[in-house]
Every structure is written in C-alpha cells, then in structure tokens.
Write a structure and sequence with these properties.
The complex is a heterodimer. By secondary structure, chain A is of the alpha/beta class. Chain A is about 40% helix and about 25% strand. Helix content of chain B is about 80%, strand content about 0%. Chain B contains nine helices and no strands. The chains are: A alpha/beta, B mainly alpha.
Chain lengths: ~240, ~220
C-alpha cells in the first residue's frame, strides 16, 4: 500500500480543467519531486493531497484514508500530513514558538509543557532555538521557512508536502532550507515536493513527476528523468531551467 | 459671559456623573454585544451556504437603511410587546443598539476577515485546525488587528449616538445636563460643559486610535 495514492484525479474551475486524470503514488519513505512550467497544475495537485483544493473526479488516499470521501475527518487527516507553503504562512500575530505550539495544543491536545518541549527541540534542529520568542516578521525568509518546516514536523506527520518551498526566497537563503529538507529525506520522511530546484531533485528525489497543462506527462525514477530522453515538453522545460 | 456660573457645573457633577454612568454602560455593552453579533453575521455573510449569506446580507442591509432613532423607538415599543412584559427603557434601548451596531460591525469584520490571506487559512487547515479553531486562533485575531482603528472609530460614533436615548426618556449624560440646564436656567453653562466633555472623551479616543495605527500599520 502506498502512502499517497492518486487515481484519475480531475479538477475544474468552472469550465477550465486544471487537473486531468492525474494518477500517481508516493511510497512510504519516498521523495517525489513534482516539476513543470507555471500554470501546469503542480501546486493544485499537491493541495488536493490534503484536501485544501477539492477535486471533482478520481480518488486520493493517504495512509488508506480517502481524502475526498464525505465521512473522512479531514482536519484529523490533515494533522497527520505536514505542509510547507511558498510564502511560509507563519501566523504573524503570535511568536515563533507559539506558531509551533498552536496545533499541538489544539489538535493533538498536548499540554503546554510537552508542546513547548517538542517545539524547542525542533527549533534547535533547524538551528533557530534562539529565535523562539521573536515574531515571524523579525525573521528572514529562510528562517521563516525553516520554522514552517518545524511547525509541520511538530505534528509528527506521516508525510510532508512542500509547495515551492524556496520560490519566495532570496538566492542566498535557498540552501539553508534545502539542507533541512535533505536531512529530512535522509531520515526516511515521505515527501512530495513541488520545486524547480533540479539540483535538489538530482540529489534527493527518488522519483520525478513532470506536469504540463494539468496532466502528468512524466512519472519516472530520477535517473530515468535526468539521463534518458524525455518527451518534448519535459525536454524543453529542463533545458529552460537548467541553463540559467 | 460675565454671569457665567461655574458653581452650577460643580454642584451638578454628581448628577451628571450618574448620567455619564448610563452613557458609558450603554456604550460598553452595545460595543460588546454589537461586536459579538457582528462577527457572527460576518461569518454568515462569508459562509459558502447561499441562504445563510443571504439572510445575513438582508439583516445588514435592512438595519443600515434605517435611521437609528427609528430603531430605538421600534424596540422601545416592540420588545415589551414581544416579551409580553415591560423590560425597562435601558434594556430595550440596549437591544436596539446591539442589533443596529451589529450591522456595521458585520461589514467591518467582513472586510477584516477578507484581508487575511488565503494562505493563512490554508496553513491553519493544513495543521488540522477545524473551521472554528482556524477562525478563533488564526483568522479573527488578524482580522481584529487589521480593523482595530475602524472598530474604534465606530465605537466613538456609537458613544455619541447613545445620546439619542433621550427620545425614550432615559437619563444619560446629555439628558442629565439638560435637566439641570432647564431647572436652573443655565443653558449656556450646561451645554458648553456637555460639548467639552464629549470633545475631550472623543479626542482621547481618537488619540488612542492614532497610536494604535502607528503600532499596527495596516498591511503587514
């Protein structure tokens, strides 16, 4: 059984189809990179995995629980799937440590002490323990994104979703975030990562999915993706992003 | 101005304070009640259920197109009629203010909630927060912060509007001053005092707002 399983997922905004018959899966412990030109539906695809984006056709299961099913306790399922966003989305009105504690307290019903301990341990791990009492706006983009990763990990997720985690960062901060993600991957975390960072894909990914116009055009191992001839669209995309 | 009598002002302070007590009490409870109902209405207006959103919109549009004084009259006669027993002027007026102000607070809070980025809502959802938790801990605190200056401005307007209770015979600050003015024929003294007190209190409120605006500039 795969950790994440998608079968013929289609989604429309009105008449406009954003996802067409997307089928793929992510095994436990696997790192899958999703890439493709902007507007190809990759961000939408990853948001369907935890039900942030509803879809009209197909089936998605996470840990064998159907995301789209009426009877599914969606908040509970989401609490088990960490998610990191392009714009960090830390809560600006509370401190860093409170950001990490909030869902532990309210969703997992951990007590104050335990959630703080877990939060501090994770902040330490991403190298930001000394920033715990600051507010998000006082941190750099790279630091905020590392906090966002810690916030997701605090829930002890069974999988992590990353939606362009480095796209909003200044170049010099990209690596500090990718390093945390790489470490996470080596520890065996199941990860689905929408990114243009092909270096990260080469080093860390097990599989690469290439999307174009709402379709999954390529879905293969990393080696196949980078070393053999891909379809015309994937080739064109790769040549565009690898040359700069 | 030579016969301007300061004594009459000083002598009537206890009486005026009683009136101010009612004014402040009414203002306070009308803000709390109006804001609470306004938030609920705002959430209804933004609800994906069309009928709920329509009902809230109808409420808001109705109350916003009525003069406040008419609403006060209405509730003064209507509330005892509905309940089948007299409730006293204060409570009927309070209910009128709460329901009237809620319409305005609804629109302010709706704008506040909409000013919170979708990404923030997603982040709360992705962590497993329920709709209620997400509103309570993520969205509404940010909405309140963004709208604080406008909410306080509305509170100042409400403070001034409470003087309309004279129409149902409640003795607020203005009415208390008016009673003294007519009793002792000291119109000039009393009306100037009333104006000065309203001016100072509202100015202080406005200064607080300006300070808040500097502390939490709109936009992050």
């Amino acid at each position: 059984m795969s950790m994440i399983e998608m079968k013929n997922v289609s989604k429309w905004y009105g008449d406009f189809q954003v996802l067409s018959e997307c089928t793929t899966s992510v095994e436990k412990g696997e790192v899958v990179v999703v890439c493709g030109p902007s507007g190809s539906g990759k961000s939408t695809l990853i948001k369907t995995v935890n039900g942030l984006e509803p879809f009209q056709k197909g089936i998605i299961t996470v840990d064998d629980i159907s995301v789209g099913a009426e009877e599914t306790d969606l908040p509970k399922l989401r609490s088990q799937i960490g998610m990191v966003f392009q714009n960090f989305e830390l809560f600006p009105h509370i401190s860093i440590i409170e950001n990490i504690k909030l869902a532990q307290l309210k969703v997992l019903n951990r007590d104050d002490e335990e959630s703080k301990k877990r939060g501090m341990a994770l902040l330490d791990r991403v190298g930001l323990a000394d920033q715990a009492t600051k507010f998000p706006a006082e941190l750099s983009g790279g630091q905020q994104q590392r906090v966002a990763i810690a916030r997701g990990l605090a829930m002890d997720p069974i999988a992590m979703l990353f939606d362009e985690p480095t796209s909003a960062l200044d170049p010099e901060m990209i690596n500090e975030v990718l390093d945390v993600m790489t470490e996470l991957a080596h520890e065996g975390m199941t990860m689905m990562v929408v990114t243009h960072e092909m270096g990260f894909a080469r080093r860390v990914a097990n599989r690469v999915i290439f999307m174009d116009q709402g379709r999954i055009e390529e879905d293969c191992t990393k080696d196949e993706f980078f070393e053999t001839d891909r379809g015309e669209r994937a080739q064109e995309f790769l040549s565009k992003i690898l040359t700069h | 101005m030579s016969d301007f009598d300061f004594n009459i002002i000083i002598e009537s302070i206890p009486f005026l304070l009683e009136g101010m007590g009612l004014t402040l009490l009414l203002t306070f409870f009308a803000i709390v009640g109006g804001l609470a109902l306004g938030v609920v209405l705002a959430l209804c207006r933004l609800s994906p259920y069309g009928w709920l959103s329509f009902a809230a919109a109808t409420y808001v549009n109705f109350f916003r197109s009525m003069p406040l004084i008419l609403i006060i009259f209405w509730f003064y006669f209507l509330v005892p009629f509905i309940l089948g027993r007299p409730v006293g002027g204060f409570y009927s007026v309070l209910i009128a203010f709460v329901m009237f102000e809620a319409a305005y607070y609804c629109e302010i809070m709706r704008a506040g909630i909409q000013s919170v980025r979708t990404g923030q809502v997603y982040a709360g959802q992705a962590l497993g927060l329920t709709y209620k938790q997400n509103m309570q801990f993520v969205v509404l605190p940010q909405a309140f912060r963004a709208m604080m200056p406008i909410l306080l401005t509305q509170a100042i307007i409400l403070f001034q509007d409470t003087s309309l209770v004279y129409v149902v015979g409640l003795r607020d600050f203005l009415v208390a001053a008016d009673i003294v003015a007519n009793r002792d024929n000291r119109l000039m003294e009393m009306y100037l005092t009333v104006a000065l007190v309203y001016f100072v209190l509202c100015l202080m409120g406005q200064l607080c707002i300006n300070k808040l605006q500097k502390k939490y500039p709109s936009g992050r």
